[in-house]
Amino acid sequence: MEFNATLLGQAITFAILVWFTMKFVWPPLTNMMDERAKRIADGLAAAERGKQDLLAAEKRVADELNKARQQSTEIMLGAEKRANQIVEEARETARQEGARLVADAKAEIDQEVLRAKETLREQVATLAVAGAEKILRKEIDATKHADLLASIKAEL
User: Fold this and answer.
1) Which terminus of the chain has a smaller tally of CB atoms within 10 A, N or C?
2) DSSP codes joined into one string, 37-82
3) Which of 17-21, 98-102, 107-111, 139-143 has the lowest mean pLDDT?
4) 156 near 132, Cβ under 8 Å?
5) Has this prediction a pTM greater than 0.70?
6) What burial class does residue 154 get, using C-beta atoms within 10 Å of its C-beta: 0-12 exposed, 13-18 middle, 19+ buried?
7) Which parts of the chain span the membrane according to its record (predicted)?
8) Any idea what DSSP says for residue 140?
């Protein structure tokens, strides 16, 4: 066999192999590589979107935490204000109740004083009558007795 014929046969075989590869093998390989490249690009894009979503979610979480802290601070301030208000109301109620109790006690003391004075007057009147009886039994002088009774009445 001649070297040229072999070379020509090999060249024809190579050309047929190149044509067969270009026609039947190369398109599925390029399609698979294109699909793989597309999947990789989609995966990278999804990863980037995921990263952006994660950053956005972290920002939302930080905002929500700040809002929650502000709300808790507002609630605490409101609770302290309400507690102070309740304490002031209780103090005012206690003052009013104390003033009412003092007024009631003073009124009761005044009534007791009036009762004591009335009792004392009755006792003095009884003693005056008893004294008058004794005086009348010993001596009967109408003018002296009238003056004496008038002075007793004036003292009462």
Assistant:
1) N
2) HHHHHHHHHHHHHHHHHHHHHHHHHHHHHHHHHHHHHHHHHHHHHH
3) 139-143
4) no
5) no
6) exposed
7) 6-26
8) -
